[in-house]
């Protein structure tokens, strides 16, 4: 939660990826991207065969030329992940997410096309 606060209020990070520890008992920080990290850096940080919770701070400019930011919460659950992992992440999702005040857009994704940059831009508006 401390890292989320740093992303949200201090804007120290571009993204945070969380994972469950090896015993599936605790959610821990897996990776953190600094403010200069690209969206590609973020998507590359998500494993192909395992689930993750992710926060992404997306900056964009509106049609009125106003700089804005949206904080995305993404449940990454690829179809290639193990069934046990998918079930545990899904069952813990609501409780974990409820502790993150300030999320503006939520997504659940099973493959990269569901979190493409175009999809993120569309959802940010």
UniProtKB/TrEMBL annotation:
InterPro entries: ADF-H, ADF-H/Gelsolin-like_dom_sf, ADF/Cofilin. It comes from the Eukaryota. SMART domains: ADF (SM00102). One of its GO terms (cellular component) is actin cytoskeleton. GO terms for biological process: actin filament depolymerization. One of its GO terms (molecular function) is actin binding. PROSITE patterns: ADF_H. Keywords: Actin-binding. Residues 1-125 form the ADF-H domain. This is ADF-H domain-containing protein. It comes from Digitaria exilis.
């Amino acid at each position: 939660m401390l890292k989320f606060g740093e992303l949200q209020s201090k804007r120290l990070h571009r993204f945070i990826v969380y994972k469950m520890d090896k015993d599936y008992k605790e959610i821990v920080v897996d990776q953190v991207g600094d403010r200069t990290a690209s969206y590609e850096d973020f998507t590359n940080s998500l494993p192909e065969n395992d689930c993750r919770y992710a926060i992404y701070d997306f900056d964009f400019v509106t049609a009125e030329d106003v700089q804005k930011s949206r904080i995305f919460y993404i449940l990454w659950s690829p179809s290639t992940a193990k069934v046990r992992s998918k079930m545990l992440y899904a069952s813990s999702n609501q409780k974990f997410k409820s502790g993150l005040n300030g999320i503006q857009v939520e997504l659940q994704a099973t493959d990269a096309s569901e979190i493409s940059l175009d999809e993120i831009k569309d959802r940010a508006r």
